[in-house]
From TrEMBL:
Protein source organism: Advenella faeciporci
Parts of the chain that traverse the membrane: 19-36, 56-76, 96-113, 174-192, 198-216, 228-252
Name used for this protein in its record: Phosphatidylglycerol--prolipoprotein diacylglyceryl transferase
Family assignment from sequence similarity: Belongs to the Lgt family.
Chief location bin: membrane
Keyword field contains Phosphoprotein: no
Topology in the lipid bilayer: Multi-pass membrane protein
Length: 261
């Protein structure tokens, strides 16, 4: 067992102003998307100006924050937020759903594509490889907050998380950072480096994230207000299954369309 590095969730405090690590992780995530996106534009991977790309990031930021928060409220704790409506705005305390954020980003990309005269999957294929490192930042923020801890474990790197009882647990946030963040980024970055049928990069993202999240959920403690659902799966696993199936369908259909052309 190794000790949990109890980091103050407030990174900077100046009088009444408090800047949380969780918020800084989101800023870092969007900065990485901006840097990687500019690089891909320079490489000619999409016909888009830098200014229009920054507009797309703005759309995406709104999609992530609004979709992620609404997704968490609706998927995980609707009753709590119905009785504590002011808590909806306390995003610095955590409580964001990836699946809700994904839906928000999908809507943002659709609206941006319509405005720019591009298909949805042209935009999605460009954005998909930029996302995983941002996800890694979010999981690191979860770890610093000491939230979303893992199930009881006897591995040498198990940790006792504050608020989780005196039980060593998997640092599942780190597992998710490595799988859904860094490993998925490497796969998508190299896969998208060659010309692919439209939709296939998005398909690999859906399949990759869905599979890695499904696996990581086996080490993550299910939300106490939900517990295990049908077949012993967590909510995160059930939300990942449609992603995997959609990714498989999209990959096959996009390959078939190219063959038929």
């Amino acid at each position: 067992m190794i000790p949990f590095p109890e980091i103050n969730p407030v990174a900077i405090e100046i009088g009444p102003l408090k800047v949380h690590w969780y918020g800084l992780m989101y800023l870092l995530a969007f900065a990485l998307v901006w840097i990687l996106g500019r690089y891909r534009i320079k490489k000619g991977m999409i016909d888009l100006t830098q200014q229009r790309f920054e507009d797309l990031i703005f759309y995406g930021v709104l999609g992530v924050i609004l979709g992620g928060r609404l997704g968490y409220i609706l998927f995980y704790q609707p009753a709590f937020y119905l009785s504590h409506p002011l808590e909806i705005f306390s995003i610095w305390d955590g409580g964001m759903s990836f699946h809700g954020g994904l839906l928000g980003v999908l809507l943002a990309m659709y609206l941006f594509g319509r405005k720019e005269g591009k298909t949805f999957f042209e935009v999605a294929d460009f954005i998909a490889p930029l996302v995983p490192l941002g996800l890694a930042c979010g999981r690191l923020g979860n770890f610093i907050n000491g939230e979303l801890w893992g199930r009881p474990a006897d591995v040498p790197w198990a940790m006792i998380f504050p608020g989780a009882g005196n039980i060593p647990r998997h640092p599942s946030q780190i597992y998710q950072m490595l799988l859904e963040g860094i490993l998925l980024f490497i796969i998508l970055w190299f896969f998208s480096g060659k010309k692919r049928p439209v939709g296939q990069v998005s398909a690999v993202f859906l399949m990759g994230y869905g599979v890695f999240r499904f696996i990581a959920e086996y080490t993550r403690e299910p939300d106490r207000y939900l517990g295990f659902l049908a077949l012993g799966f967590s909510m995160g696993q059930w939300l990942s299954i449609p992603m995997i199936l959609a990714g498989i369908w999209l990959y096959i259909s996009s390959a078939k369309k190219q063959t038929d052309q």
